[in-house]
Design goal:
By secondary structure, this protein is mainly alpha-helical. It is built from two helices and no strands. The longest helix has about 40 residues.
Length: about 70
């Protein structure tokens, strides 16, 4: 995982937030709700991907730790 991954997720989050506000101001509540739902799914998948990477790094660290002793 690199900084580019984090910046990509942050950028997508900002764009979705701005679209959400835009649709709320226009009174398009159904579009706003649908956008919120899609954003929630996207962020959940990205969080799971980050957690997978994190636990892989922890596993590598413990393997290294047990190889030393």
């Amino acid at each position: 995982m690199e900084l580019q991954d984090v910046l990509r997720v942050a950028g997508v989050g900002i764009v979705i937030a701005l679209l959400h506000i835009f649709f709320e101001q226009l009174g398009k509540k159904e579009f706003s709700y649908f956008l919120f739902f899609i954003a929630y799914l996207y962020m959940t998948l990205e969080l799971l991907r980050f957690l997978k990477f994190f636990f892989q790094e922890i596993a590598v660290f413990f393997q290294w730790l047990t190889a030393i002793s």
